[in-house]
Amino acid sequence: MPKLLRISTVPLSLDLLLKGQFAFMQQNGFEVFLASSEGKEIQNIEAETGIKVHLLPLKRNISLLNDLRALWATYILIKRIQPDIVHTLTPKAGLIGMMASCLASVPVRIHTFTGLIFPSKKGLFQKLLILMDQLLCKCATHINPEGEGVKRDLIQYQITSKPLKILAHGNVNGIDLNYYDKSLFTESKKQDLSKALNIAPTDFVFTFVGRLVGDKGINELVEAFTQLSTPPPLEGAGGRTKLLLVGTEEPKLDPLSPETQRQIKEHPGIITVGWQEDIRPYLAISDAFVFPSYREGMPNVVLQAGAMGLPQIVTDINGSNEIITHGINGIIIPPKQVQALEEAMHLLLEDESYRNSLSQNARDIIAKSFDQKLVWEALLQEYKSLTYAQSN
Questions:
Q1: Which of 18, 50, 83, 205 is most deeply buried (CB count within 10 A of its CB)?
Q2: Amino acid 239: pLDDT
């Protein structure tokens, strides 16, 4: 039985981004091993999968001494396990994991690039990030961009000359359509949650899910919503609007502007609920999903909101513009444009026919291209073909 080692920088990525995938691979002929840094999610992963998570001293920030320690620890782990495939996810795990598996002569070394950091950076820091990804690619035998946008950036910045293969239609895990299904939530459950959040039956709810940081377009979203909800209220969808923010701020890494922070605290139409393990109830009570991010790989929340049948407003960036087709299942606007965002929100609020048209297409499009079964099967066949090639 071939051995597969999956490595991510933090266990949250293994738990949320790849949920269910490890059991599928084990059921289809692979012995799966997992590794990451410490984290509260490890207990959940081990309980759900029955697979021990090996601990590595991986850290997101750049630290030469700690990174060398992590490289040695990863190398030792790989030599002990002797995997046929090492497959990494997230930047630091990719660099350390690919270097260590190359040094250990692992025959198949795969890295999946999700959201790229360097395109949004400048100067020496950008050059350092590019060098790190170039080194990662030199050590990898196979490179999988998560989507077409990520692939274009890898080519444009000359990260590697190796073949770049997108599996299925992109995304690392696909969407479980049996789980992300609005019909699972009764009207009674939705009414109870709306009441608890002080959302009236006639309110129109725009929802955002993700980190409440500048890079996700929260400053523009709050400003656009503030302008949209300025009295006198718009008549569409019953008049009143609410903005539901599901996620937490990161004031040390990417703080919001003081004005945005003030509006979030004081605006009567803005509701914050913090990080939620299960976002489905909040999507179920929403009328539209808004995701004005500056950069992404293949954003899971856009897939999840689509599976829940929501019309969406997204920015014209990698990933989002591969999931949303303008005028079919959502609206695409330029990033960082408050006026364009407000106009799109206004359109969904007022034009019920257009909104319903987008909503009707939303779930079908996700099912056609991003059903979890399609993604898992494509990855399984990739693993099988690569291990077969090595054994012959």
A1: 83
A2: 52
Task: Say if strands 270-272 and 288-291 run parallel, antiparallel, or are unpaired.
Answer: unpaired
User: Measured between alpha carbons, how far is 154 from 133 in angstroms, rounded to an integer?
Assistant: 9
| Beta partners for residue 312, in sequence order | 289, 330
Q: Dihedral, CA atoms, 195, 197, 198, 204, nearest 10 degrees?
A: -90
Picking from 215, 250, 219, the residue whose alpha carbon sits closest to that of residue 121 is 215
For residues 229 and 245, give the distance between their C-alpha atoms in angstroms, rounded to a whole number.
16
**CA–CA separation, 328 vs 221, rounded Å?**
22
Give the DSSP H or E segment for 352: helix 352-370
C-alpha 201/C-alpha 94 separation (Å) is 47
What count of other Cβ atoms lies within 10 Å of the Cβ of residue 365?
18
Q: How far is residue 9 from each of residues 94, 166, 241, measured CA to CA in Å? A: 8, 22, 39
Q: Is 351 helix (H, G, I), strand (E, B) or coil?
A: coil
Q: Are 286 and 159 in contact (CB under 8 A)?
A: no
Q: Dihedrals φ, ψ of 70, to 5°?
A: -65, -40
Predicted model pTM: 0.88
Read off the pLDDT of residues 380-391 as tens digits, 9 standing for 90 and up. 999 999 998 777
Mean pLDDT of 336-363: 97
